[in-house]
Design a protein that fits this description.
The protein is built from eight helices and no strands. With 225 residues, it is an all-alpha fold. One of its GO terms (cellular component) is membrane.
Length: 225
């Protein structure tokens, strides 16, 4: 009886952790959609892009409130993913003699490496364009010219390549996370699951393609200093 109780408690805790993982990921997904909207002002020119970000800084309380929520969300997301992964590995102390991936997807199998890569991308992006402490060698960060910081940075080949590759990893990560969100929350309906998954994957691809479009546009000479 005690063993059954412990197993039930373990399952309940795992479900709770997966729900936290899904909800924190969903929160970041919605933020990325809004962030993409902000960044697409790049294509409206320097004045529009700079004015948009100047307006955001006019309300420090709101700005830091949003940042606080995002920081809490990423801490929850990373923390729960580490616990879930550790439990999964501990439940299989011996390696399989023959490893088979059953009823899974490429994205699901690669979440453990896309997650850290996306995390590295996030840290670098903040240090690079938010803080200005990781500008490419030879470039100075201008705290008043956000547009110029972006364009000059993406003119450096390795920086632009890193952003494009990182957005590829983000696409895979978001596509799996978005498509599995409803299953994690118990909202399963065979009649709409396939359509919902297609929409989730398409949305992830569109969001990340939008972010990748900026370094590509600099390469193509569409966005210039």
């Amino acid at each position: 009886m005690q063993a059954v109780s412990l197993r039930a408690r373990s399952l309940s805790t795992s479900l709770f952790l997966k729900t936290l993982l899904a909800l924190s990921g969903a929160g970041w997904f919605f933020f990325l959609i809004n962030h993409l909207y902000s960044n697409l002002h790049m294509f409206l020119g320097r004045d529009s892009f700079n004015a948009y970000y100047d307006a955001l800084k006019e309300s420090p309380a709101m700005l830091w409130g949003i940042r606080g929520v995002l920081i809490a969300g990423i801490v929850v997301h990373v923390g729960t993913s580490i616990v879930i992964t550790r439990r999964s590995l501990e439940s299989r102390p011996q390696r399989y003699h023959v490893k088979k991936d059953v009823v899974t997807s490429y994205a699901a199998r690669t979440m453990r490496w896309t997650g850290p890569l996306v995390g590295l991308y996030l840290v670098y992006h903040i240090l690079h364009l938010t803080v200005g402490a990781a500008m490419p060698a030879g470039l100075a960060h201008d705290p008043h010219d956000y547009y110029g910081n972006v364009v000059r940075s993406f003119q450096v080949p390795w920086v632009a390549a890193f952003y494009v590759i990182a957005n590829g990893a983000l696409t895979v990560h978001l596509a799996h996370g978005a498509s599995s969100l409803f299953q994690t929350l118990g909202l399963v309906d065979p009649q709409v699951d396939k359509t919902r998954n297609v929409v989730a994957i398409a949305l992830a691809v569109l969001v990340c393609a939008g972010f990748a479009s900026m370094p590509i546009a600099v390469w193509a000479g569409v966005l210039v200093p």
